[in-house]
Structures are given as C-alpha cells and as structure tokens.
Amino acid sequence: MNHPQTNIAPTFSTVLIALFACMGTIVHPAQALAQSAAQPQHTQAIPLPLSGRAGNSGSVTAIEAPIAGTTNSVTTINPSVQVQGPYTGSVSSTAKLPFTGKLSLHEAIERGLNFNLGSANLNRAVSQAQGQSEIARSALLPNISGYLAETLQQANLAAQGLRIHIPIPGFNFPTIVGPYNNIDLRGSVSQSVFDLTAWNNFRASSEQVHAAQLSARDARDTVVLAVCGEYLQIIATKQRVASAHAQLDTANALFQQTQQKRAVGIAPQIDVDRSEVEELTQQQRVISLETELAKQKIAIARITGLPPSNAYELTDEVPFAAAPSLTEDDAIHQALDRRSDIKAAEAQVRAAQRALSAARDERLPSLSINGNYGAIGTNPAQASATFSAAATLSIPIWQGGRAEGDSKIAQAALAQRQSELEDLKGQVESDVRNAFLDLQAATSQVKLAQRNLQVNKETLDLTRQRFDAGVTDNVEVVQAQESLTSADLDVINSVFAHNLAKLSLARAIASAADNLQQFLNLQ
What we know:
Blueprint: H1 12-22, H2 29-38, E1 59-66, E2 77-84, E3 102-103, H3 105-115, H4 117-138, E4 143-156, E5 176-194, H5 196-263, H6 269-304, E6 313-314, H7 328-338, H8 340-360, E7 366-377, E8 384-394, H9 402-468, H10 475-509, H11 512-520
Parallel strand pairs: 3-6
Antiparallel strand pairs: 1-2, 4-5, 5-7, 7-8
Helix pairs in contact: 3-5, 4-5, 5-6, 5-8, 5-10, 7-9, 8-9, 9-10, 10-11
C-alpha cells in the first residue's frame, strides 16, 4: 500500500535559487541595495508653509501718538521709536570695525547694517532657502554612486525549507552550500528625464530663495529706521538735557537773587522757599534726563554692535529742515513699485503657484533612466565586466488620495499668500499716508513751538524786570520760567517729531538708506 508523500514539492523558483547558490552567483546584499535604490520612485510635491511671512522676525515702528495739550504747551504729538525682537540686538562690531569713541550717524547706520541681529538673521534665512533649493534641484540632476564589496557566504538550504531528491545513485543534493566568495566593484547612475512635479518643486524653491533675498533687503530699511530713529531720539534727549541745565542755571540765579532780597528785608521767606523748590525741581529734571540719555545710548550701542555702554559721544546734529517736495500720490506709487517686502510677497505667491502645479502634476507619468557598470568575480584577476541599463515610465494610478490632499494643502497656501500680498499693499499705502499726516502735523507744530518759545522768553524777561523793580513777587517769575521750560521742550520735541516723520516717509517709500540724505538733509 502506498502512503502519501509528506514532503512539500519545491517550487521552480526555489530550485533556481539553489542552483544559483551552487554556482556562486547570489547577489551581494550591497549590490541588491544599490539596485533597489536605482529603481524610480514617484516624486511628491513639497508642501509650503501656510503663511509666507517669517515668524518672530521683530519690528521697528516710529510712533507719533497724540497727547492732550496743556495751557502752556503747543505739543500735540509725542514721537517715539519702538524696536522689538532681534532688531534690539547685534553681534560685536568692534573687532571688525574699530571704534574711536565718537559715533556719527553714518557710522551708526553702517554698523547697524552689518552687525544688527535682525538683518543677520534674515541673511541666514537666505542661505537656508538656498540650501533647500539645492535639495529640490538634486531631483532633476544625475545621481551617481559607487561601491566596492567583497562577499564570503555559506548557505543552509535545508534551514530555508529546500528539500530536493534527485534519483542518482551515489549522489546526494547538498544541504550546505559554500563557503563561496566574490568581489564586486560597481558604479551606478540614475537620471530623471521627465518629472513635472520635481521641476515645479525646484521652481517653487527658487522663488522662495528670491523672496528670502528680498526680505533681507527690506530688513536693511528696517535697520536704518531703527538706528536713525534711536539716533534722532538721543539728539532730542541731549537737547533736553542742555535745556534743563540752562533752566537750572536760571533757577539758581533766581534763588540767589531772592536770598539776597530776603537778607535785606525786601522779600518774604515764602519767595525764598518758592525759588528753592524751583531749583530742586530743575535739578531733578536734569538727573532724570541724563539717566534717560544714558539708557538711550546703551540701546543704540546694542543695535549697532558696540559695547553696551554710554561712554561714547554722538557727533552729529540733525536740525530742522523742510521735507523734500513730494506729492502723496507719487509717494504711494513709488512705495508700491519699489518696496522690497511687496516684491517678496509677490515671490511668495509665485512659489505657492509652483507648489500647486507640483501637487497637480503628481497625477502625471514620469520617465527616468538608470544603469550600472562594474566587474564581479571570485577575485580581481577573475572579475568580468557586467552592466545593466533601464528606462522606466512610472504611471501613478491610485495613491490613496495623496495627490488630492497635496493639492488642497497647496491651494490653501496660495490663497493665504495672495491675501497677505493684498493686505501688505494696503498696509504700505496706509504707512505712506500716515507718514504724510505726521509730517504735516509736525511741520505746523515746529512753527507754533518756535513762536511760543519766543513769546515765553519775552514774558520771562518782562516778569524778571517787574520782580527786580519790586512790583511783583517771584510767583510770576517761577511760572514764567516753567512756561519757558515747557516751550523749549516743545521746540525740541516738535523738531524730533518732524525728523522722525521724514524718516518714516523715507522708510515707507523704500530704500531708506539711499533716501536718507535727501529726507534728513545730512551733510
């Protein structure tokens, strides 16, 4: 009686594996890895961030906020410069650009442009974008690799489930094959011939590089606004300190004069006390303003890469000068045409359009070629040349909805960046119009403040004459001196507001560094 066979009959592929193993032609693992790597893979679109605006990039804002007027002041706007984020810091500049201890406006701008952290960060962002573009371009260029492998191998066919019975007397099919060895020296190359997704990925990355370069250029204008704004603020504070010292001298003279009158009995003690209070008030003003000046000098040192100290001197003065002749419509047209941040936003839109094309092109076929050439044998002397070449047409049929998902992501990014571009154009136009309004208000304020100062000087002179003649006490003198102090500060404040408005207009139009001479009338 015949019993059924319990051994599973080997498949044809299993027999071939065994035969190839006996002949020592099993592919080395490194060779198999290289061959699998050479197989084409369908390119996927590279998703862009939803927004094209850089996060945490800092800002510099010139503010002229309205303030309530008083009976002895014509000041209606309070100018200030707000510097935030990386623009408040810098890398040290003294090693590359020695410092003499005197800082001109031109030198401060030069140091700021070269060493301010806000500008430096965006320059590094350009390098990063260039690196990402090179990565995207690599999908379009040949990929070449090579390897040298030496293999020593022994295979256990029985352990792999291979059982072969050959009815030849005296011959048993081996269950252990080897050891055997070979040496393989080989180079491989692959090249994409037609891949629209990879091409559009590269074009999108190129637009990203262009946008980063334009953002870095716009950052230069922001640095100029920060440095010049702080410099103008220090000039105004220096003038306030000088004015406070002059008023202190006047208060001291009045106090001494009142003491002398008290000594001869022609002035009451209350006049002496009132004069002393005025002198103490002026002393406190001097201390407060000198402290503010020291802090502002430390702030501009941080912006320009100088040691954070106030032990240096600012050499330039920026007096009042009329603004250049420019209509509001012309300024808006120049700003929309020349602003680097608008051009950067337009480049971001083009990048998003390319990314959307790349996502849609994922549905299209791609064509690539690859091949390898080398020598393989049991040793170098017996090695023989072998090669392979292939052209592959990859046709995506169904990717589980990935192409549709990539398209939705790209469409959202494109819509967001188009909205940001429109918003930026509106913001630029509002910046120009606000700068013109501030300039008009500051111009009027300068004229009023100068006239108010002249009137208060005359009032103080007449009041002191009345006090010297004994017609009145020193109440009117103290009040007149306070009014003169306020009027003097009004002039300083209004000139600062006027210069800051011109600086803001130069920044709003674009190329602030180039327009600075024209707007601030620098020597």
